[in-house]
Design a protein that fits this description.
mainly beta, four-stranded antiparallel beta sheet, 3 helices, 44% strand
Length: 224
Amino acid sequence: PACMGTLFWQYNDCWPVVSWSARDYYGAPKALHFYLQREFNDMLVSPVVEKGRLRVYVISDRSSLCRGLLRIQICDFNGKVLKNSTKKFTIPMRTSSCCFDVDSVSFMKGIKPDQIVLKAVFQTEDGSNQRYSNSYYFVPVKDLALEKAIITKELMKIPSGYKITLKTDKLARNVWLSTDIRGKFSKNFEDISPGEPLEIFFTTSYKQKDLLDKIKIRSIRDTY
């Protein structure tokens, strides 16, 4: 039987350097690692503008059909919902289904593209209630009217390490957690919106009370 797979460049760095690899020279995961972690889920929500149409695809690698609820929102960077659409869909197995298709110009009329984000969430109704989400920005990152966000963090001890809860007052794009403590973040390089706390699990054997101070948080806005 034929075998199929995916090969990407590049997995790791062979010396300490700034690059687009998935892991650095010391083996620590970088942004690409966490993006691939999301992209290789068994289902993917994919918003895109193509040929003047705003479309949202739900792509399934599952071996059976999946029923669920697709929610699409246009929000400003303060968390205000400007447009909202919710509809149930049945996604066939191993296929890409276009579940949302509108004229992008008329749909975006009166909305400034550099001050909004489209959020698309597909929640399954198969008992597991899994959520698959993705965001779409209508201009390049460098053109987004991002404001400085105040990100707060809370820490809770769990058997495998700690649960970190992040909250923000404004949209925080590409939030990156880092620390010199040996451990593993469950997710990273995520966007955080007001009113939508983000939970990240940090697996570690470190037990000192100063861990919260040792975790650094940056977003893309903090780089300029």
